[in-house]
């Protein structure tokens, strides 16, 4: 084992910063780029010294390289100092040393739930990337972790970045305006009241560079199937938008109608391009066909009701997006007066765009809508409307259009706010349980088929 320290060349006063920064981060076994994105920004209440515990691996080195890159960024340099412990006993060492008070988790999802439980048992707050669980067994562990966290007065929270995407924020805000939206329809299986679809890509750019995926990312026993991974965000948004600030009871409020999963083939050449690993690991053999394609169970769809409202979420993974495009999102909320729709296709130049499509347009409706938009514009200055064939496009100033990477700072700031008050809204924990119950029960149902 070895101890490694590194820091940027930027000068700063540790004593003055420490006096104001009681939050001390620990990064445990980083294996996903989301762990680094938490540190793409600095936070005044967070100590710049971050302790990292992991085995020696390419995953660890890629994490440290990203932090170094943020420290060296000419436009907005950070000044993190990473203190790294490398050793096979990294977990025990972290639990015993008490070098921080918040454990940041983003990596191998097969291990993550155990990390969460052991961390709260040892007295640490936990800030975890999604998904916190990938199967029913993990869900039962998570319930225990939340019980322990409450007993030990700790905050366990997952990183729901999509709550900070501006078209989603405004879709939610408009759905809470009866004059414009009416009330949320109940929907049917064939026409759900709310639908959310997400298209992702294995090969993508992060922080300006092509992302190298760990080989285990293609093993659904370690990463989790698509139906319990990216759908975590979609299920969260259904809850957050349809029943804002309301506590949900997963035993009473959720009923699954159907769920299915399917594969995306990754060729041997694509595997090497994606992971920089020449030989396919033995643990991926169980997914490999006669053509040497690795068939990853990364696509999924869930149809369910939430408090009687029909919802559908689906995720699709392709290998690489066509030039000029990227990950995309589609969302519709059906109200009794209008549909609120987010589209992100070619017509929108692959940028998320929000539309208001009234069921009974007219002068009276337009007057109500203009009044609502003027009220929303008091908080989101510059938001206006543009008439189109189906209703209106919501015009959003560029200043509000932050990218996915910037949303990590927003959700981290929210978690730090919760920490400063030593509490979260009463609905957050029950709704996290409802979310993971939905995804893990859907995975169980899809597996039967």
Q: Care to describe what's here?
A:
It is a single chain. This protein is about 35% helix and about 25% strand. With about 450 residues, the protein is α/β, with parallel strands linked by helices. β2, α2 and β3 (about 50-55) form a beta-alpha-beta unit. It has helices at about 15-20, 35, 60-70, 90-95, 110-120, 135-150, 165-175, 180, 220-225, 230-240, 250-255, 270-275, 365-380, 405-420, 430-449, and strands at about 1-5, 25-30, 50-55, 80-85, 100-105, 125-130, 155-160, 195-205, 205, 210, 255-265, 295-305, 310-320, 330-335, 340-345, 355-360, 385, 390-395.
The low-confidence parts are 2-21
**Total count of helical runs of at least 4 residues:** 15
Q: What's the multimeric state?
A: single chain
Number of strands: 18
Looking across the biggest beta sheet, what order are the strands in?
Answer: 11-12-13-8-14-15-16-18-17
Instruction: Kindly give the count of domains.
Output: 2
| Alpha-beta content class | alpha/beta
User: Hey, roughly how much beta strand do the residues contain?
Assistant: 15-25%
Give the CA-CA distance, first to last residue: 46 Å
Major β-sheet annotation: 9 strands, mixed
CATH topology of the largest domain: Dihydrodipicolinate Reductase, domain 2
Radius of gyration: 22 Å
Mean pLDDT over the full residue set:
94
Per the principal axes of the C-alpha atoms, what is the gross shape? Answer: globular
The CATH first-level class of the largest domain comes to Alpha Beta
- Tell me which CATH architecture of the largest domain applies here: 2-Layer Sandwich
Helix content: 25-40%
């Amino acid at each position: 084992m070895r101890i490694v320290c590194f820091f940027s060349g930027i000068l700063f006063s540790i004593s003055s910063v420490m006096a104001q920064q009681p939050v001390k981060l620990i990064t445990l076994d980083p294996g996903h780029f989301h762990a680094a994105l938490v540190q793409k920004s600095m936070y005044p209440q967070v100590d710049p010294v971050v302790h990292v515990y992991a085995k020696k691996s390419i995953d660890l080195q890629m994490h440290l390289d990203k932090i170094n890159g943020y420290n060296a960024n000419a436009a907005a340099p950070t000044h993190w100092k990473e203190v790294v412990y490398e050793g096979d006993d990294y977990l025990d060492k972290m639990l015993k040393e008490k070098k921080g008070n918040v454990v940041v988790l983003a990596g191998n999802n097969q291990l993550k739930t155990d990390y969460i439980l052991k961390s709260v048992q040892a007295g640490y707050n936990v800030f975890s990337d999604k998904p916190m669980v990938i199967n029913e067994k993990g869900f039962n562990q998570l319930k225990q972790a939340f019980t322990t966290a409450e007993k030990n007065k700790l905050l366990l929270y997952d990183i729901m970045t999509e709550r900070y995407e501006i078209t989603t924020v405004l879709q939610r805000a408009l759905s809470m305006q009866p004059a414009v939206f009416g009330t949320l329809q109940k929907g049917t299986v064939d026409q759900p009241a709310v639908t959310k679809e997400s298209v992702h890509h294995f090969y993508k750019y992060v922080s300006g560079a092509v992302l190298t995926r760990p080989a285990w990312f293609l093993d659904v026993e370690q990463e989790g199937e698509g139906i319990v991974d990216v759908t975590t965000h979609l299920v969260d948004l259904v809850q957050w938008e349809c029943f804002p600030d309301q506590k949900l009871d997963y035993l009473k409020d959720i009923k699954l109608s159907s769920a299915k999963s399917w594969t995306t083939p990754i060729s041997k050449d694509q595997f090497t391009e994606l992971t920089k690993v020449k030989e396919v690991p033995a643990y991926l053999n169980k997914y490999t066909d006669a053509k040497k394609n690795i068939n990853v169970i990364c696509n999924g769809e869930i149809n369910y009701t939430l408090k009687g409202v029909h919802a559908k979420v689906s995720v699709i993974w392709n290998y690489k997006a066509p030039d000029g495009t990227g990950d995309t999102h589609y969302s519709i909320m059906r109200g009794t007066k209008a549909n609120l729709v987010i589209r992100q296709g070619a017509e929108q130049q692959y940028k998320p765009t929000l539309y208001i499509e009234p069921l009974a347009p007219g002068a009276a409706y337009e007057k109500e809508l203009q009044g609502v938009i003027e009220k929303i514009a008091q908080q989101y200055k510059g938001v206006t409307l543009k008439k189109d064939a189906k209703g209106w496009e919501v015009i959003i100033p560029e200043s509000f259009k932050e990218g996915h990477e910037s949303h990590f700072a927003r959700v981290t700031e929210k978690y730090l706010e919760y920490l400063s008050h030593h509490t979260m809204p009463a609905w957050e924990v029950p709704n996290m349980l409802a979310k993971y119950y939905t995804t893990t029960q859907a995975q169980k149902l899809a597996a039967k088929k």
